[in-house]
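Researcher: Here's the sequence for the chain we discussed earlier.
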Amino acid sequence: MKKDTRLTFRVHSSSKKNLEAIAAREGRSVAQICDAFLKVGSEIYVKKGPKFLQRLFSRQKKELSE
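Model: Thanks. This is the structure I predict for it:
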């Protein structure tokens, strides 16, 4: 499938470093890794619905408070 649009957003520097490390380890570009993660994440959301995001954000909030 041809990529035909851009998606631009800001992320935490630690997330960017993690994505760059994964991309390097996999021999892929950061864009390819992000695209794969977005695809898988959206597929999980379709299957599990809003509760998927609620659990995800709840876990992130808990990790930040520790």
